[in-house]
Amino acid sequence: MVILSALADEISPDLKTQLDVLESEGIRHIELRGIWNKNILELNHNELTTVKNRIYGRNFRISSIATPIGKIGITEDFERHLMLFKRAIHVAKCFDTPYIRIFSFFIPPGENPEDHRDEVLKRVRILEEKAREAGVVLLHENEKEIYGDTGKRCHDLLSFCPSPHLRAVFDPANFVQCGVQPFCEAYPLLKDDIECIHIKDALFEGGKVVPAGQGDGEVEDLLRAITSRGYRGFLSLEPHLSTTGKFDGFSGPELFRVAARELKKLLKKTSIEWY
Fold first, then answer.
1. Which residues span the domain enclosing 15?
2. Which residues form the Xylose isomerase-like TIM barrel domain (predicted)?
């Protein structure tokens, strides 16, 4: 049995609307990224308390904190970024989740990612050490144009820093948009490191994002493979069916419902139980 979650700011910036739509689709976990047009790390103490009370009051729970940690250029100031990471740890503990999503730094356009490998690995090692000290788990997502945007470089990063405090978010659509076959190429390298899966699909031609099962993300094959291995973690909807930005995406209530229902069709087809 898998657990459905969602980046609820894909639905609306309004918290009540997010919860209403998730409840209507039977989804009770949230990958917390944005509320009221603010990133979750930007909310003050009173706002965090309000959000937590409303979420818990309606019997929702947080699957992870979807931070922008690591979504800076590899040549940008890292020390300042560590202050934001400290905030991310605080927010994760506030919402009773061990999971913090991170990235492995944007590579300057036109430059070879391998030329920045040492600096990337040094920074990720520092983040892992601080996560270990705090008792949280970092989930590295394979985002476009960062160091870890291919299966091979994700594997390199996770192999360099083997730790229960550094695991993988597997995003099929992001692999497709980098010209990588998610299941055939990336999954064999990362299958032992996957802690969460983003449900997002895309087409190789043009990189357009589409509902799960309608693109080249090999989502059905992926679902069959992970459940055969006993996966019991989160499938987190991040549809991006309306707009895609550098730091977030948007679908709106109706397109989010389309994405949720297409995922449920795949789960039914593959005989995978969910809650």
1. 3-269
2. 20-243
> What's the structural domain count of the chain?
1
Torsion 52-58-64-68 (CA) sign:
negative
- Is residue 274, in this structure, part of any structural domain at all? no
- CATH at residue 69: 3.20.20.150
Asked whether the beta carbons of 11 and 17 are under 8 A apart, the reply is: yes
Residue 275 lies in a domain: no
Model pLDDT for residues 111-159, shown as the tens digit of each residue: 999 999 999 999 999 999 999 999 999 999 999 999 999 999 999 999 9
Specify the DSSP class assigned to residue 177.
H
User: Which residue, chain included where needed, has tokens 């910036």?
Assistant: 13
The amino acid that residue 69 corresponds to is I
Q: Is the pTM of this model over 0.85?
A: yes
CA-based angle 172:137:86, to the nearest 5? Answer: 110
